[in-house]
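P.,

For your records, the input lines for the assembly:
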Amino acid sequence: MKIKVLKPILEANESIADEVKGILREKGIKLVNIIGSPGSGKTALLEKTLAHLFPAEVGIIEGDISTTYDAERVYSLGAEVVQINTQGACHLDANMIKEALQNLTLDNKKIIFIENVGNLVCPAEFRLGEDLRIIVLSLTEGEHKPLKYPYPLSFSSSQVLIVNKIDLLPHLKVDMEGIIAEAKKINPDLKVFPLSSLTGEGFSGWIEYIKNLFCIP
Amino acid sequence: MHELTLASNILNITRRVARENALSRVTRITVKVGVWSCVNEESLKFALSCIANEPWIKGVNLKVEKIGQGDTIQEMYIESIEGEKNEDKSIKAHS
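Structure tokens returned:
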């Protein structure tokens, strides 16, 4: 006998993601999921972004396969951090976030950033209950990344593209406008911010965007 | 990419639906995946064959159908399962 099922394969993850969203909505907290390749500058972006916000109002969930190096970097700036070590798993799932939230003080927070495991493929499939998904791409990663990674939802499911390390532009043989055009081809609604997390160049646009979006004074 | 995670979700949903319908054995699972959902068919089949080793599902045939229009390109879901109904040896016994 044949039984119609019609159930999403990742329904377990989807329902926990909704739970996470519910918990945070009740507290008035916004959740941001940061996705990008290893070395694209996700932690550096967080560090520089923290300097423009009140660190006490920010929570950070650091996803790494191993070690606490990244967590220590942002902790030293005054933000509350929870480290998730995935022990080899290539992405974070909603259940890991739900558990991490139990180790964060939620009462005084306005925004929680999740730094996902460095990977352009797997993290994109797993909704974590986020209000905003951003993808960080650095100019040193080479050209045609958007077209080389079109299927993973990395580009199509994100609302923001950070093009990082623009301070290196004079030293690289890379067509930044071409990269942005490719990304826009996959996702025309993508908001793009070329910036340098090292020098701070281009940061004002990004900070203004996130503050306006989440009504942070 | 993460086919083992998907396979284990497929196994869990199949177990639940099989129990609800008192199946004693599941012989075929049909899943539909959007062309943008980034699922590798071979590796999904391999992952499922590795973990589907209880008697009620061992040797199950996984059919992967690609879908690709409109908003469905990023979706993946279980379309149907097929199996044998046998009240005496229903899946409830296998937990």
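Two observations worth noting. Chain A has a mean pLDDT of 92. Chain A touches chain B through 26 residues (CB under 8 Å).

Regards
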